[in-house]
Structure formats: C-alpha cells, structure tokens
Amino acid sequence: MVYPDDSLTLHTDLYQINMIYTYWQTGIDQQPVVFEAYFRNKPFNNGYVIFAGLEHTITYLKKIKFSASDLDYLRSLNLYTAAFLEYLAQWRFTATLRAPHEGEVMFDHEPLLQVEGPLVDAQLLETALLNIINFQTLIATKASRIVSAAKGEPLLEFGTRRAQELDAALWGTRAAYIGGFNATSNVRAGKLFNLPVSGTHAHALVQAYKNDYDAFTAYAKTHHNVVFLVDTFDTLKSGVPNAIKVAREFGDKINFQGVRIDSGDMVGLSQTIRQELDRAGFPNAKIYASNDLDEYAITNLKKQNAKIDVWGVGTKLITAFDQPALGAVYKMVSISGDNTIKLSDDDEKISTPGKKQIWRTDTGDMLTLFDEPGVGLPILQDIFVHGKQIYQIPTAQAVQRYAKDSLSAIPAPFKRIDSPEKYSVSLSKRLIEAKNTTIQHVKNMIKEF
Ligand SMILES: Nc1ncnc2c1ncn2[C@@H]1O[C@H](COP(=O)(O)OP(=O)(O)OP(=O)(O)O)[C@@H](O)[C@H]1O
Ligand SMILES: O=P(O)(O)OC[C@H]1O[C@H](OP(=O)(O)OP(=O)(O)O)[C@H](O)[C@@H]1O
Ligand SMILES: O=C(O)c1cccnc1
Fold it and tell me: Which residues form a coiled coil (predicted)?
C-alpha cells in the first residue's frame, strides 16, 4: 500500500503513542522534560565514535506531524479516542534539540542528542532518533577504523548490495564518507548528498564478451579513466596481460588507471601485477583490491607488503559486520525542573541525571550540569530551538573535514584500532552531587512506599 501523505511520524514504537495517550489523559503531556541519548560501550573495542546522523535527524524533525493517513491508521487500531486523534492532528514539534556537530569525536556516556521540551514531543521521537544515530554513528566509526588501517590510501565504498535494505545503503554510505571514505559506488547517494561516485566494472562485463581482451577493448572504446577487473578467468595468465595489451593499444585515448583484483592471494598477486605493470611502462597504474576487506584484512595485507593502492570495501563496512548495533539509549534526565534517574542493580546502567553539557579540554572531556560554567569547548549546540531549526546543515564535504579535524585533536593512543587507551570522561563535582542526591531521593521514595 502506498499512501501519498505517508510520513515518518509513525516510525516509532507503539508504546510511545500509548504512553503519550496516558500523559494526555492525565494532563502531563506538556510537562517540560529533558531526554538524552548516549551509549555505554564503544563499538568494535574502538577508543571513540564518530557522531553521525544529524542531517537525517534534522530532515526527520522538519517534516514531523501526523498526516491524514497516519491518523486514519491510528483510528483503525481502536486504541484511542477521537479526541486524542484530534490532539495528535494538532500536535507540532516545539522542542529544543541539542547535538554535537555531525562528525564530532564522541565517547561513551556523553549525550549525543538532548531533547528539551514538552513530554509528548520527547517521548514520540525516541525510536526514530535512536534508529538514525545508532546506525550512522556505528558506520561512521567503522569507516574511521578502516581509514586508519589504510593509512591515507584511497577507500571506495562498495557496500550497497549487501546493506540491510535501501535506507541503510544510502545513509550508511554517507556515514562512511563522514568517517573518511573517498567515494561511493552508490549513484543515488552521490546525487542526494553530493558525494564523489566511483567504480570499475564487474565480472559480468568479461563474461558478456567471453574473454578479457574483447571485454577490455569494448570498455576502452566507450570509457575514459579505465580500471580493468582482471580476475574473471585467470588473473596472471589472461587478465593482466590483456589489460596491458589493451592499455598499450589505446594509449592516451583511455587514460588507463589500473586494474582491480577481487579474489586469490592478494599479496602474491598484487606484487606480481605491480612488477608486470612497471615492466610494461605503467608505473602510475594503480592496483585496486576488493573482497571482504575490513580494517583487519587491510592491516594484514599491508603487513605482508601487498602492493595495493586503492581499497574497495563493502559488506564488512556497511553491515558493521563484527558489531551490528550501537547500543545508544535515550533516557529522561529531568522533568519539571527535577532531576530524574533510571536505577539498576548494574551500576553501569544507572543513568546520570540532569540536563548536561560536555566540555572538551586537552586532558579529556568533562560532563557538567548544563548551566554550570565549564572549561574548554562546549560540544552540545542548539540544532532546533522551540521547534525552529537554527542550525544549517553543512555539506558532506564539510562534515567529513570536521570529523578529520576533530579526530586529529585527539592524541594517537586513544585512536589505535587495537587496544586503544581509555579517554578520560569525568563528571563535575556538581553533577556527582546531583547524581548522589537523586539516587538518595529515589531510595527514600522507595522506603516510604
Ligand atoms: N595473502 C593474503 N593474506 C591475507 N588475507 C588475504 C590474502 N589474500 C586474500 N586475502 C583475503 O582473504 C579473504 C578470503 O579470500 P577467499 O580466498 O575466500 O576469496 P577467493 O576464494 O579468492 O574469492 P571469492 O570466493 O570471492 O571468489 C578475503 O577477505 C581476501 O581479501
Ligand atoms: O567484498 P565486499 O567488501 O562486500 O565488496 C563488494 C563486493 O561486491 C562485488 O562482488 P560480487 O557481489 O560480485 O560478489 P563476489 O564476492 O563474488 O565478488 C565486488 O567484486 C566486491 O567483492
Ligand atoms: O565499482 C566497483 O568496482 C564495484 C562496485 C560495487 C561493488 N563492487 C565493486
């Protein structure tokens, strides 16, 4: 079924709407609250994350309201009164959203998003906000690790065919770009986000012409800046010699860029291919490689002195193969000016109450109460104020640059992809006091009950 007025407003869990119904019936839906999103464990045992998802968050919030078909659908559930549906029809987003710059380096327990406003607004948004930032931050972080392993060599994002459906491919490749990838093979992502697009050709081209020579010749006749895929039948006996033959025959006409290998022993093959290309007079031709690559495979291949210049990475990046979810949660930290907390037997899971700010200094980050004076750079900034967008979305290029600069300000030991040192994130004295007071307060409440 396609609804002409479909919206993302119902992209939420049913329980959010059920809670809003209760808040509304009991008259607390407009109480001022603050919710914050944060994660407890850094993914991939990495030392940091790259915050991503802000652009999608903004486009989601800009359009959020219940459409006629949204309301018809809710009516069909027979869970709510007509008066409540009318209330939803009139509802508009009026909260304030704070977030770090997209591309900012962030750490566990730091607010990635802060929503301040009516309880109804903050509650409705939880699911979609977490859905967006959990995925994109995860992929940008994975990309950043792969970029670190490639040590400045170009990285192409090839993951669309293996991504978890269309949206994940699209926003995932943008996140990969923020994390430092140079280009994507996804043409729609190129169009929508103005990302550089790039690509070679597949085995099908060689199969279609039945042999390497005819395939490369046909491709060379129709393209400039060509990269030939040389491993369809036999890399060294057919693919590489025919690539060289065609490159020589076409000369300047095709601006031969190099060859891609996608199977076999990438170390031995790349070393031999390098010698062959050099000997044939193509010392500037590059060797592209792809095939289940990630930061570990790239590190391993480099250690073995593989002669690879350009890395194509798909599946393991776009699916965050070794850790498919970032566990950011979204917790209420204050209601009607009172700090509030979620207790747990597990100390790690006790939330830190109060609306917060993050301050970055040379010696680490400090979380303070929002209005407390801090030292260093404040990380959370206003994105929407009372429902109005005040932050302009930068270009993807600017976000990528921001991520690079943000990362270069963090000392190397915290950025190792293997066993990084733990970056210091501390709580201010006032925040610790607020936490202890709130815990004591809740314990007294339980005792009285
Ligand atoms: N010399 C090497 N050292 C370490 N890893 C390598 C080396 N050569 C290839 N790899 C990596 O090993 C993995 C396994 O490759 P595998 O042998 O399954 O591929 P293949 O059989 O050659 O190709 P395919 O099955 O895709 O046609 C790939 O991720 C590849 O990038
Ligand atoms: O390996 P990835 O990191 O996911 O990169 C994308 C892969 O997509 C293509 O393969 P294709 O779908 O043709 O399958 P293949 O594995 O048989 O080459 C390409 O040749 C890469 O191998
Ligand atoms: O352009 C390529 O080489 C490419 C694109 C998508 C997937 N694998 C390879």
Answer: none
